[in-house]
Design goal:
Distance between the termini: 44 Å
Number of domains: 1
Structural class: alpha/beta
CATH topology: Rossmann fold
Order of helices and strands: EHEHEEEEHEHEHEEEHEHH
Shape: globular
Helix content: 25-40%
């Protein structure tokens, strides 16, 4: 009779492409859509790339991909290589892979069932040649469905960053994301509150557009840190729409960049 105590837990982790070299993987998640998760992913990737690290973004939001547009690479296509294909590169050298880069038209809808979508995620990991990547950010779809489960089970994620907004229902949504990470034994690196406030152009006063934020209380409840509180910034939104996210000069994310660097060391 087998002794269950001596049995090793089954691992579903997939090996990356044999020509890939990926040191750290960070998943950016949200409990609901529309909170700016892809924007935060793009800003984080750009910020750490500016510190001299080789950076990549895997767009795992298969049915709502927006990473190529943010970086202005919608007209580029992955190149076939020996044993895989290479992601496209942004103007500052960030590697990007997204389903939108494989579609004939970027506005073509992806109407696929779960198994097909999760299969694409695994292909992005196994069939793409990610060369010498220090940090890979995975832009996840909202919620706790098939794709997050596939990513957490198939890819060796080193930590997650939760993106949220100041609305009242945030506590429940954050709790779902945090609990899923705990169930998958993945550390939560912190929370980013997007659209936290807007600055008055006349007096520079911070206006809580969505009402009083409760993010600090929520973070304390789950014993995780608040990475940053990002304002509503029309200028950043404009650059994002124009595919110029790498042109954003931001003072945000100093704490999380230090934490990510400590992970690397």
């Amino acid at each position: 009779m087998n002794n269950e105590k001596n049995q090793k837990p089954v691992s579903f982790i997939e090996e990356p492409n044999k020509s890939s070299n990926i040191k750290k993987v960070i998943a950016v998640v949200s409990g609901k859509g529309g909170v700016g998760k892809s924007l935060v992913t793009s800003l984080l990737a750009s910020a750490i790339a500016k510190k001299g690290y080789k950076t990549a973004v895997m767009d795992a939001d298969i049915t709502g991909p927006s990473i190529p547009k943010s970086f202005g690479v919608t007209k580029l296509k992955p190149i076939n290589g020996d044993g895989g294909f290479f992601p496209v590169k942004t103007k500052t050298g960030i590697d990007i892979m997204s389903i939108n880069l494989l579609l004939e038209n970027e506005t073509d809808p992806v109407i696929w069932r779960g198994p097909v979508i999760t299969g694409v995620i695994k292909q992005f990991w196994k069939d793409v040649i990610w060369e010498n990547v220090d940090y890979m950010f995975i832009d996840m779809p909202p919620g706790t469905g098939d794709v997050p489960l596939t990513v957490f089970q198939s890819i060796p994620v080193n930590g997650i960053i939760v993106v949220t907004s100041p609305q009242e229902l945030v506590s429940m949504i954050v709790e779902k994301a945090v609990n899923m990470a705990k169930m998958m034994n993945i550390p939560v690196l912190g929370i980013v509150e997007n659209m936290s406030y807007i600055k008055c152009p006349n007096c520079n006063r911070e206006i809580e557009f969505f009402g009083k934020s409760h993010i600090d209380e929520i973070a304390k409840k789950f014993n995780i840190s608040v990475i940053d509180k990002l304002p509503i910034n029309p200028e950043i939104a404009k650059l994002c729409d124009e595919g110029k996210i790498e042109d954003v000069q931001t003072e945000y994310f100093k704490n999380i960049l230090n934490k990510l660097e400590s992970l690397y060391k």
